[in-house]
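User: Need the bound-state model for cytidine-5'-monophosphate:
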Amino acid sequence: MGEHPLFIQAPAKINLTLDVLGKRADGYHDLASVMVSIALSDTLALWPAPDGTFTLECDQPELQGEENLALRAARLIAAHAGSLRGVRIELRKVIPTRGGLGGGSSDGAAVLVALNRWWGLGLDVPTLRDLAAQLGSDVPFFITGGTALVEGRGERVTPLPDMSPLWLVIVKPEVAIPTPAIFRALTTAGWTDGAATRALVAHIRAGTLPPLTDTTLVNALEPVALRAEPRVAQVRAKLLAAGASCVRMSGSGPTLYIPCTSLAQATTMQDAAQDLGAQAWVTHPISAPGGAPAPSRA
Ligand code: C5P
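Assistant: Bound-state model below.
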């Protein structure tokens, strides 16, 4: 490593589908989800720390603690590789925290991938995913990113061809919903059979994008979150009234997303969301940095 920092991007994700299939013996839930990386990213600068220390500076100081996933990722991969090197991390947050967009998970995965390369550790993708799974359920997806089928607790990741491009408006109501509380409030009646995820995966593999509607995009956690936080339900209802044809929640929320067919429609939806006091971004899905498998010729 030289004296210069390595700058890396850590993109957010949304869940196009999120089926909760059941509860596992370990207390986690079995999931089936199509996740897609989006062009809304945190930026990290990694600086060499030859004295072997690990430190983090973040533009949101409340995120600088030892539990930060970027810092934990650095310590984890160094310990795994028996490396004596340390790293000083600067983290500029753009992805809203605790929103269902996987920001912290993406920061952690980005550090694993970057240090593996920077330190020449030669760890393969399955090993990086195993390390990622130790940090959190959403982290393994971000090792490769792009569009993927995510199963199990989140550790089984099958890369998919890129979904056809589209505009997305991301809407973050000013509400915090803790993920464990949402999973706890989910009853067996809220479990789904995985059909929505299977159908979307088949479309993406064939290179055909189905109409993105409240029927083709499902999130088993959404009804729970909307009941827990009626303000999110209100924002969703008002976006539908403002002309959105589909408004879905990402992960355990409260962030909502709206697929749009034109930039003009996306801008209208962003304005509507901001008028409701929510933060809103216009963005789009992005490819896996390493490239995605091609659509199958069915
Ligand atoms: O793995 P992670 O720490 O990100 O998960 C946060 C919480 O979300 C867990 O404590 C658990 O309550 C819930 N969860 C779950 N099933 C999953 C993933 C997360 O029940 N597959």
